[in-house]
């Protein structure tokens, strides 16, 4: 099958540091290539892939200080994909609703994975107007605010099986927080939970420009507490030791999380997750197997005291059973085949061969 993957241009694919969507696009692209598909990745020029790379912009927009309007490169990207759409069996977008108006008016089947939150009221008229455009959710819970959308399938994220693995021999003497410092991620909760258990917490997190005021006013004073160690952003090679050395990953979110990639990153390292019961959490964490699902800080503290009941080998096994990138790619192929069936299309490779 000839597949185009269209990534956001904000980060490289895969991202050098933080960047959930671009990391998922990379994992999916590589797994599709391994399954034997002919894949073209439209992304920034500093991306790395075994697929054909169409380097549409020289580098990730976040790293280019000259870019002030990030929408403009994406509009040009859409036009380039439209111009070449006939070359592919399926176009797979990862840039929200941007392709809806243009690509609903052309013939090549396309699908969009929605990676973000969907509970914003301004999205309702978008999905009312484009109720026939096929979309993929990354969790069943993510669909809740947009019942009118044309949901093709739910596909959970996945990681390469050997990308993150347990590191043996590291001292497990702290709780971990991984991700982003923002109001919805609630690193303040994680700090209080660690303090209540008498444990140290290590925080590996990105601080976006948009969250700088929140950090300065509410979080920075907490980072000065004696049990808190702020590490900053970490890359892929640093994650196994960071996560393997933790008693657990704290995921005390306060929003309808669409998926939560850090949860399966932790599971891949054999580290259980203590997560608040919001959004996708019950779909990702098997309570009492790969971690504990809690309702508040008090129950999170109690969960820390029960971590000894979760064998870390079992946590890793849950990752291998449910969240590898190969499994993710296979599920997406099923979605592509369903899309082609709905459009009554054969794949180009079969047409050319026959």
UniProtKB/TrEMBL annotation:
User: Boundaries of each Glycosyl transferase family domain copy?
Assistant: 171-308
The answer, when asked if Glycosyltransferase is one of the entry's keywords, is yes
User: Looking at its record, which EC class is this enzyme?
Assistant: transferase
- Could you name the domain of life of the organism this protein comes from? Bacteria
- Gene Ontology molecular functions: glycosyltransferase activity
Pfam families, per the entry:
Glyco_transf_4, Glycos_transf_1
Asked if the record carries the keyword Glycosyltransferase, the reply is yes
Report the PANTHER family cross-referenced here. BLL5217 PROTEIN (PTHR12526:SF595), GLYCOSYLTRANSFERASE (PTHR12526)
Protein name, as recorded: N-acetyl-alpha-D-glucosaminyl L-malate synthase
Give the gene name. bshA_3
């Amino acid at each position: 099958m000839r597949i185009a993957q269209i990534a956001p241009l904000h980060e490289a694919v895969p991202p050098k540091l933080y960047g959930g969507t671009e990391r998922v696009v990379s994992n999916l692209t590589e797994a599709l290539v391994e399954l034997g598909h002919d894949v073209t990745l439209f992304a920034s020029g500093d991306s790395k892939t075994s697929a054909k790379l169409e380097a549409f912009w020289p580098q990730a927009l976040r790293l280019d200080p000259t870019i002030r309007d990030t929408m403009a490169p994406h509009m040009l990207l859409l036009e380039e994909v439209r111009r070449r759409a006939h070359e592919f069996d399926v176009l797979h977008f990862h840039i929200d609703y941007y392709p809806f108006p243009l690509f609903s008016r052309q013939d090549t089947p396309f699908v969009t994975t929605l990676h973000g939150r969907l509970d914003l009221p301004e999205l309702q008229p978008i999905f009312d107007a484009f109720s026939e455009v096929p979309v993929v959710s990354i969790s069943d819970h993510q669909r809740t605010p947009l019942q009118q959308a044309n949901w093709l399938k739910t596909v959970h994220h996945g990681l390469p099986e050997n990308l993150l693995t347990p590191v043996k021999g590291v001292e497990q003497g702290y709780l971990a927080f991984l991700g982003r410092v923002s109001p919805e991620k609630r690193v303040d909760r994680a700090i209080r939970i660690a303090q209540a258990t008498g444990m140290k917490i290590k925080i590996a997190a990105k601080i976006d420009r948009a969250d700088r005021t929140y950090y300065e006013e509410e979080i920075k004073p907490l980072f000065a507490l004696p049990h808190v160690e702020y590490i900053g952003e970490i890359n892929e090679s640093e994650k196994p030791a960071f996560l393997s050395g933790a008693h657990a990953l704290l995921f005390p979110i306060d929003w309808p999380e669409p998926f939560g990639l850090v949860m399966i990153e932790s599971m891949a390292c054999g580290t259980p997750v203590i997560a608040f019961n919001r959004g996708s959490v019950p779909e990702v964490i098997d309570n009492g197997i790969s971690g504990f699902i809690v309702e508040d800080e008090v129950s999170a503290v109690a969960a820390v005291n029960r971590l000894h009941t979760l064998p870390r080998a079992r946590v890793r096994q849950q990752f291998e059973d449910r969240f590898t990138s190969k499994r993710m790619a296979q599920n997406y192929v099923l979605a592509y085949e369903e899309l082609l069936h709905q459009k009554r299309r054969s794949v180009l490779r079969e047409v050319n061969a026959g």
